[in-house]
Design goal:
Layout (H helix, E strand, L loop, with lengths): L1 H6 L21 E9 L7 H16 L8 E4 L7 E6 L5 H19 L3 E5 L9 H12 L1 H5 L4 E3 L16 H9 L3 H18 L3 H15 L12 H23 L2 H15 L7 H8 L3 H12 L3 H19 L4 H7 L5 H12 L3 H12 L1
């Protein structure tokens, strides 16, 4: 019956609608509620069994409306309710009723859920249509950024241009020119427009994949996004990843080597780094390496390394309770006296004076 309702296949001739499983009465009005349990896309078989048990518990509970509700499902994560009544009631009354059903189910299952409600059906034969409307209503959560109860209304298809919502040419140009901030702003602004006006989720995902494909054919949105904000954040992450990769590709071999040297020093901050070691790492002799580094960075290797070490020492003095000699070891100075001398020369104060001054500021 669930399959017939949700697909419409053989529904009108199905023997199911001829029996009293669904109350058949010309005076009745029907509503279909499409439910999605949140954050259960990758639920284990044990978790699904737990949800099924919760649905059975809910069916056995008594409530003022339980005799008017039929629960259908072949997947406990996406059950369907068929609600029938003799009176259509007001929108406010119905929304309170749907909210009460939602609260009962959430309590029974111990899980948050999103519900879409189709337009009223005046016959059992119209229930498959009402189910499709309920599914469409549930998708409004995607743009609202929060689960809830969403009643049916037709989307204004022309409200949002989902053919090119991101101004793809501008985004691609900004990324290729290394203007990541400009590209990110275009993405954020596009999602703000989309969130306000809505639109078809499938078309939006297609637009995202089309844009990503122009930047990197390997990039593609394959996961399910429950809200438009999650999709936006994912797009910004992928944009940043592509931008970083393109920036690396644009860098000259010399610049890439400097990046590796910087990382080498950062990873060995506490070691007794020698010029010979770093020169060998770079593949040069000491004399050439010294000249090369100063030309590319603008200061000698030793001035650079001392600056990096002092910056890290100041950070540790500000954020930890470590003693000065302990911090000295962490940044590569194993002689406390030498560390103190180098720190004062660079900062103008001893480590103790610097820490006391910072503590005074905090107080």
């Amino acid at each position: 019956m669930y399959h017939s309702l949700t697909s419409g296949f053989q529904w009108s001739s199905s023997s199911i609608v001829q029996i009293d499983t669904i109350r058949v009465n010309a005076a009745l009005i029907y509503w279909v509620l499409a439910i999605e349990i949140m954050n259960e896309t990758d639920a284990s078989s044990d978790r699904i069994a737990h949800l099924e048990a919760g649905l059975r518990r809910w069916e056995k509970q008594t409530s003022a409306f339980k005799d008017r509700v039929l629960l259908l499902h072949d997947d406990a994560r996406r059950p369907v309710l068929v609600f029938s009544d003799y009176e259509p009631g007001t929108d406010a009354v119905r929304l309170r009723l749907w909210a009460a059903i939602k609260a009962e189910l959430e309590s029974a299952l111990g899980a948050e859920m999103n519900i879409g409600v189709g337009d009223a059906a005046t016959s059992v034969a119209a229930l498959p249509r009402a189910f499709q409307e309920a599914k469409q209503s549930a998708e409004r959560m995607f743009y609202a950024d929060a689960p809830g109860v969403y009643a049916f209304y037709p989307y204004a298809a022309a409200a949002t241009n989902l053919v090119d919502p991101f101004e793809e040419a501008k985004v691609v140009e900004a990324v290729k020119l290394g203007k990541h901030g400009e590209a990110a702003d275009l993405i954020v602004n596009a999602f703000e427009r989309i969130k306000r006006s809505g639109g078809d989720k499938t078309a939006l995902l297609a637009a995202c994949n089309r844009l990503l494909g122009q930047l990197d054919p390997a990039e593609r949105a394959t996961e399910t996004f429950e809200t438009v904000s999650r999709l936006r954040d994912w797009m910004l992450e992928r944009l940043a990843s592509v931008s970083i990769a393109l920036n690396k590709a644009r860098k000259s071999p010399d610049d890439q080597l400097i990046d590796k040297i910087v990382a080498y020093c950062a990873n060995r901050m506490g070691e007794d780094i020698t010029l010979q070691q770093v020169a060998e790492f770079a593949g040069y002799n000491k004399a050439y390496f010294s000249s090369f580094f100063k030309k590319k960075v603008g200061e000698s290797f030793w001035d650079y390394l001392t600056g990096v070490r002092m910056a890290k020492a100041k950070e540790l003095l500000e954020t930890t309770t470590l003693a000065a000699h302990e911090i000295g070891k962490l940044v590569g100075y194993h002689n406390p006296s030498h560390f103190g001398k180098m720190f004062k020369q660079a900062v103008g104060r001893t480590p103790a004076e610097y820490k006391n001054n910072m503590t005074g500021i905090v107080r």
